[in-house]
């Protein structure tokens, strides 16, 4: 008999995992704990997900896309391109690393445990980078659009976000992230500061 997957079971699994990952981190969370929180067995989790990493990315994709959805709405209300750029960089380097008790750090923990032969798809990252590049295009002057080629600037922002998330996970919020984000925006726009 074919097992019919039930959406409430899937949702309970993801809710349990999100709560546990947010409280104790990816490395300290087991599938058994996730199952207990969802009221199901570990075996039942495997009917829905291939691994703990699969569970994490089933949460992380919608979580990150929701943040970018909100970012787009906020950006639409801002006319000044420098302020829109600042909002993007602050979201990537301050808001996301600290959001939901540093949830993004779980992604860093998970990826750092992978071996070269483990199955890992960059599809989510590439999708998000493309989305971010579209937002950046509205902030960066056309003569600096070379920075957007091949989603390089978006990739740089994601790499920086990972670093800030790792710092947040280990020692808490960065005291310099605001100033660094502001400096980065000025560098991108080739703005010289007056002394």
Secondary structure blueprint with pairings:
Layout: H1 7-24, H2 31-38, H3 42-48, H4 52-76, H5 81-102, H6 104-112, H7 123-137, H8 152-171, H9 177-188
Helix pairs in contact: 1-2, 1-4, 4-5, 4-6, 4-7, 5-8, 5-9, 6-8, 7-8
Could you state the order of secondary-structure elements as H and E? HHHHHHHHH
Helix content range of the residues, please?
55-70%
Query: In angstroms, what is the radius of gyration?
Result: 19 Å
Low-confidence stretches: none
Give the CA-CA distance, first to last residue.
Answer: 74 Å
What is the strand tally?
Answer: 0
Overview of this protein structure:
The chain is mainly α. Helices cover 70% and strands 0% of the residues. Helix 4 runs parallel beside helix 7 (123-137), helix 6 packs across helix 8 and helix 7 packs across helix 8. The longest helix has 25 residues, at 52-76. The chain is elongated and about 60 Å long. The termini are far apart.
In brief, what are we looking at here?
The chain is mostly helical. The chain contains nine helices and no strands.
Which key phrases capture this entry?
195 residues, elongated, 9 helices, single chain, 70% helix, mainly alpha
């Amino acid at each position: 008999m074919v097992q019919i997957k039930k959406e409430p079971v899937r949702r309970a699994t993801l809710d349990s995992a999100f709560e546990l990952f947010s409280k104790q981190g990816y490395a300290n969370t087991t599938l058994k704990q996730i199952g207990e929180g969802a009221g199901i067995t570990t075996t039942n989790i495997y009917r829905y997900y291939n691994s703990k990493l699969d569970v994490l990315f089933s949460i992380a994709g919608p979580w990150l896309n929701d943040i970018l959805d909100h970012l787009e709405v906020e950006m639409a209300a801002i006319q000044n391109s420098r302020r829109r750029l600042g909002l993007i960089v602050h979201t990537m380097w301050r808001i996301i690393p600290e959001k939901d008790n540093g949830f993004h750090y779980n992604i860093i923990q998970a990826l750092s445990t992978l071996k070269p032969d483990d199955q890992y798809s960059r599809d989510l990252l590439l999708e998000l980078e493309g989305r971010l590049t579209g937002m950046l295009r509205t902030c960066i002057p056309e003569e600096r659009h070379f920075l957007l080629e091949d989603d390089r600037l978006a990739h740089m922002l994601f790499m920086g976000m990972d670093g800030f998330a790792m710092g947040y996970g280990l020692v808490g919020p960065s005291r310099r992230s605001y100033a660094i984000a502001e400096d980065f925006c000025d560098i991108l726009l080739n703005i010289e500061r007056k002394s």
